[in-house]
Design goal:
Blueprint: H1 2-14, H2 17-63, E1 68-78, H3 87-99, H4 103-106, H5 121-124, E2 125-129, E3 135-142, H6 145-165, H7 167-170, E4 172-178, H8 191-233
Antiparallel strand pairs: 1-3, 1-4, 2-3
Helix pairs in contact: 2-8
């Protein structure tokens, strides 16, 4: 009798409220694990590509050195009777835009350039022009806002001085329109943009991988169905009749 009572108490404890809750939780965990395994087999490669893209964009944004940019503007004015933005001024503005980043032009600047490697001025100074207006846009880039502004202002000052020295030959005047101010925030890296680009790359790779895998599965299923059809249509050869040999 005491043994039966102890056995009954232990079974009641296992089938009590706590036991039922534990059993329900265990079944839920097993169900979730099975579904997770199925999803991982089906979409694991695509999710891995997307995560790799997101992590790549995040890593680029976190570990790439900051780059600052500043912009100065130079205006080319025609010295003819009409003055202003004539065809000659627009043409000379485009020509001066090509000359602005050259070391030969930068030698005319009275503003000292930050220390850079020889021949690396084109990496820090970019010039752009418009086909309609005689305006030269000079953009400087550097590791700090002060360096970026110094590159842009040095290029603008050099271009003004170079144009002034050739004023009698060209018939146009080069004037400084605005100096560059040191920016407070870097232009790159840009965390939202880098994450968006990384995510888009991961989604693209995921889509390509899904298309390749689905194509292989479809081709494999078609080959299997053809094999089954060919096997069903094959007629076995008739059995050979036994031949009696007389003694």
């Amino acid at each position: 009798m005491p043994k039966r009572e102890a056995t009954q108490r232990s079974s009641d404890a296992r089938t009590g409220p706590l036991g039922r809750i534990a059993a329900f939780a265990w079944r839920a965990v097993r169900r979730v694990a099975r579904r997770t395994a199925v999803l991982a087999r089906r979409y694991g490669l695509a999710v891995a590509f997307v995560l790799a893209g997101v992590l790549g964009g995040l890593g680029y944004s976190l570990f790439t050195p900051a780059t600052y940019t500043a912009t100065a503007f130079v205006l080319v004015v025609d010295q003819g009777e009409n003055g202003g933005a004539g065809p000659a001024a627009v043409s000379f503005a485009q020509a001066y835009g090509r000359l602005a980043p050259l070391p030969e032009t930068l030698r005319h600047s009275s503003i000292a350039l930050p220390r850079i490697a020889p021949g690396a001025t084109r990496e820090h100074i970019q010039a752009s022009t418009s086909p309609d207006t005689p305006l030269v846009r000079l953009t400087g880039s550097g590791r700090s806002g002060a360096d970026a502004a110094a590159f842009a202002n040095a290029a603008a000052d050099a271009l003004v001085r170079y144009g002034t020295s050739h004023r009698t030959d060209t018939g146009v005047r080069v004037a400084l329109m605005s100096l560059a101010a040191a920016p407070a925030t870097p232009t790159s890296p840009n965390l939202p943009l880098d994450l968006a680009v990384g995510t888009a790359s991961g989604v693209l790779l995921a889509g390509l991988s899904a298309a390749i895998v689905s194509g292989r599965r479809g081709r494999g299923s078609r080959d299997a169905s053809r094999t089954r059809i060919a096997g069903a249509g094959t007629v076995p050869p008739p059995a050979a009749e036994p031949v009696e040999i007389g003694s």
